[in-house]
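> run fold Cytochrome c oxidase subunit 2
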Amino acid sequence: MAHPLQLGLQNAASPLMEELIHFHDHALMIVFLISTLVLYIIKVTVTTTLTDKLVLDSQMIETIWTILPGIILILIAFPSLRILYLMDEINNPHLTVKAFGHQWYWSYEYSDYQDLAFDSYMVPTNDLTPGQFRLLEADSRMVTPMESPVRLLVSADDVLHSWTVPALGVKVDAVPGRLNQTTFIMSRPGVFFGQCSEICGANHSFMPIVVEAVPVQYFEDWSTLMMEEA
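> ok
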């Protein structure tokens, strides 16, 4: 989760988020270099005492500032396209989970397990226990096995929502009447928090997302217990 005064992105919990962080750093360095070059040119232009009223154009300068931006765009576009294709790649998922947005809570269905479905509501502030986070903790977590490809199907029952977990690099719009999908792999165990990222009404900020990554054996035990309770 994010912490106070945090400037950077959250630590990656999936290979996709690691790629996004690397791309962010790559693009940021290019921005810094361009900004430094532009500031230097402005400084030189303002402070120089050299003038030549007979110079009307320069083919060399025209060529440089036409070709150089094209090269920079290529350096940004290729890594960006690579990540876009990685985000759309869904090959033989080990688990499929359906997430449905409601005003104002999430419901989850595990397609590979019969009768494994539940609603996830935000824990009210008065019911929080020590160590739990206000506006982020849910009464039922979405539990997934780590190091296993998970396919997530997202939709909504009423209005637009958005299922977002920054540490996983996942943000999927939940649109009524439409089924969107994405995939992720949890690279380490832990509890990862997210929130609805599409303004959906008065309680938009009160429908958190909590994903818990556990080893496969623990996930099997949890799923068996949940089906028995159902």
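The mean pLDDT is 90.
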